[in-house]
Specification:
The complex is a heterodimer of chains A (about 190) and B (about 150). Chain A has five helices and seven strands. Chain A has about 190 residues and is α/β, with parallel strands linked by helices. Chain A has a five-stranded mixed beta sheet. The radius of gyration of chain B is 32 Å and the shape is elongated. The chains are: A alpha/beta (about 190), B mainly alpha (about 150).
Chain lengths: ~190, ~150
């Protein structure tokens, strides 16, 4: 009687440790897979900007169409506005451009264009042939203002509120989805406040 | 004659200062990330933005800014991402201490295994796993052969 009872008792803890033996590595494996899987769909080029929630860097730049006029960061105070950083040499800017033209037609929010490290003559030609959606265009010939905005690739688009605080930054070309789901709802909210 | 010596030594100190600045900038740029080609440092990268930033960094250094000032300047614009060596703060705790946690976990598992082996006599351990499996295999083989 005691002979049959003996083996089952010590076997009990061994059975649970056997479960642990395969479930623990499996759990660790599952966690690693989960991390890698999420990593598959994240764009390493999208670096979160430290400028979100910070005031717009001050600038004073010549306008593209009226080189004798300057536009400064203070001029846009009291307006919710978008700053679109683009260049005539930038290929993916062509991709987002029709969206900006449509946005300008809808007249929802003023967009200021920043021609980043571009020849003004090329920029003007580019806008003439692709359409000019900008309330005003400014020229950052040497990219200095771009550095202040933390620009590291064109196109980039910033949403700036009435107090001149940067609220959002779109890295890479605008998409209809980004506009409808994120940028325009944010603009409407900021315009009401 | 004296003038020439003075001029030469001035030129020499200027050149020396330049060399020192170059060395300092090279070291600093070696620990800053280029945002365009993200696996290169600012010193290595040939991206136009990297050239602009090198120029910016040089001008800041010439204006008397310290390495820390320059780092702060870049972090304010591009975030901690520009630093190859990220600062230790709550969001980076896992990054800094995670490897040690994993190591500690590994050591704990290893110790647990060692302790269990020590508790179990060697032949019993062999019995428990390999012998049992071998016996089962033999039994199954015999069964198959007899069919």
């Amino acid at each position: 009687m005691s002979d049959t009872a003996m083996p089952t008792n010590p076997a009990q803890p061994r059975k649970t440790s056997n479960v642990l033996r395969w479930s623990l590595p499996l759990a660790v494996f599952a966690i690693i897979v989960a991390f890698l899987f999420v990593g598959l769909f994240r764009d390493p080029r999208e670096v979160p900007s430290p400028l979100i929630g910070k005031p717009v860097p001050s600038f004073s730049l010549a306008e593209l169409h009226r080189p004798d006029q300057r536009l400064t960061s203070a001029d846009m105070r009291g307006h919710v506005w978008l700053l679109n950083v683009w260049a005539s040499w930038c290929v993916s800017c062509r991709e987002e451009h029709p969206l900006l033209v449509a946005l300008a037609k809808a007249n929802v929010v003023p967009v200021i264009g920043l021609a980043y490290k571009d020849d003004p003559a090329d920029g003007r030609k580019w806008l003439a042939s692709n359409g000019d959606p900008y309330r005003a265009s400014i020229v950052d010939r040497d990219g200095r203002v771009g550095i202040d905005f933390g620009v590291y690739g064109v196109p980039e688009t910033f949403v700036i509120d009435k107090a001149g605080i940067i609220r959002y930054k779109q890295i890479g070309p605008l998409t209809a989805e980004a506009l409808d789901m994120t940028i325009l709802p944010l603009v409407r909210k900021l315009q009401q406040s | 004659m004296r003038l020439v010596v003075v001029a030469l030594s001035l030129a020499a100190t200027a050149a020396f200062a330049d060399d020192a600045l170059d060395a300092r900038l090279k070291a600093l740029e070696g620990e800053l990330r280029c945002l365009v080609c993200q696996n290169q440092t600012l010193a290595e990268s040939e991206a136009p933005l990297a050239a602009d930033l090198r120029k910016e960094v040089r001008e800041l250094a010439q204006a008397g800014k310290s390495d820390d000032d320059i780092r702060t300047y870049l972090v304010a614009r591009y975030g901690d991402f520009v630093l190859y060596k990220p600062p230790v703060k709550p969001v980076t705790y896992l990054l800094w201490f995670g490897p040690f946690l994993l190591l500690a976990g590994g050591v704990a598992v290893w110790l647990a295994v060692l302790r269990r082996r020590a508790r179990m006599p060697a032949d019993e351990a062999a019995d428990a796993s390999t012998a049992a499996a071998a016996n089962a295999d033999v039994a199954r083989a015999r069964e198959l052969l007899e069919d």
